[in-house]
Design goal:
The chain is mainly beta. It is built from 6 helices and 23 strands. It starts with 8 loop residues before the first strand and ends with a strand. The structure holds zinc ion (ZN). Zinc ion binds next to loops.
């Protein structure tokens, strides 16, 4: 057996300073940054805007994109031209812009990028009686255009009530916004293409951030078919079991509540494991809240111990 092929990858996260970000990622998690407003921790990413490097072991210093190019066997020889997923934690101190993402076809044709963006949000924390923006109320594209041009955003957007533990699926073309007070683990396609519909008139360095009204009107799905259907409500979940919370043509995402001991066989192209709460061990090695690991293809039996809430995810091969 080739030992190097069986190493679990521990990655160095990339922190992102963003106008709406807070301090929770450095006060509640083991991440370091001097920045005042840290919006995102890109925990498992091979994107050129934040390519995580391997922290230790045989591949120390290599970036995830490089490893995916040179050692595709670690990722089940997936046929995607780039590493397909990006996992991040988002700390929104203020509201994020109202936005929408393109699908693969639009991203390739218009942005010359390999992936559009399908994403899902696991709500790690949020205020009582909170809501997120998911979907819109325009019945035709013409009505959508009018509402955007006339700035009737309150009428346009749909507010969906949510709580801690909910999972929200955001397909391309879905108008959406995260609001202030949310801490979210996002699993998404490896893409950074965001079309900003509205930014609350905020100024960054004295200027409004660019809006992408034309592209937004192109890609927003009309009529909308998301809203409440996009939300998988929080429910008591069995311990030491794979609780599937989100599924798309690109990824599967599970909640895993480890209590005591839990073993399984890693049979996916790869498995990302993010510890959201608690601590324990992974294959005998201590792991804790804020750690993200990638278990490669063919790793075999995996042993977890402790008391931990985890999100696990994997990529789905192209049809
Ligand atoms: Zn988004």
């Amino acid at each position: 057996m080739n030992q190097t092929a069986k190493e679990i990858l521990f990655l160095n996260p990339v922190l992102k300073e963003l106008v709406w970000g807070g301090r929770r990622l450095v006060t509640e998690f083991p991440y370091e940054s001097e920045a005042e407003r840290i919006g995102e921790c890109w925990a498992v990413s091979a994107h050129p805007h934040g390519d995580c490097a391997v922290k230790e072991g045989s591949f120390q210093g290599m970036t995830l994109s490089q490893l995916y190019r040179e050692r595709r066997d670690l990722f089940g020889n997936l046929s995607y031209e780039e590493f397909p997923l990006l996992v991040k934690i988002i700390d929104a101190r203020q509201d994020l812009s109202i936005q929408v993402h393109p699908d693969d076809n639009y991203a390739r044709a218009v942005e010359k990028a390999p992936f559009g963006k399908t994403e899902c949000w696991y709500i790690m924390d949020c205020p009582e009686d909170a809501a997120l923006v998911v979907g819109h109320n325009a019945k035709t594209r013409e009505e959508l255009r009018q509402m955007i041009e006339e700035g009737r955003y309150e009428e346009l957007i749909r507010q969906v009530p949510v709580q801690k533990g909910d999972m929200i699926q955001i397909d391309p073309g879905t108008v959406h916004a995260i609001k202030g007070g949310f801490l979210i683990l996002e699993t998404q396609q490896n893409s950074d293409i965001t079309y900003r519909v509205y930014d609350y008139g905020r100024l960054v360095d004295g200027k409004p951030r660019q809006l992408h009204v034309r592209q937004s009107i192109d890609v927003i799905r009309v009529p909308d078919r998301s809203g409440e259907e996009a939300v998988k409500k929080a429910a008591p979940l069995p311990e030491n079991a794979w609780n599937l919370l989100a599924e798309s043509p690109y990824y599967k995402v599970w909640k895993l509540n480890v209590k005591g001991e839990f073993s399984f066989v890693q049979e996916h192209p790869f498995l990302i494991l993010s510890v959201l709460e608690g601590s324990g061990t992974l294959e005998g090695r201590p792991v804790k809240k804020g750690d993200h690991m990638l278990i490669p293809c063919g790793y075999g039996s995996v042993s977890l111990t402790g008391e931990m809430e985890c999100i696990a995810s994997t990529a789905v091969e192209k049809p």
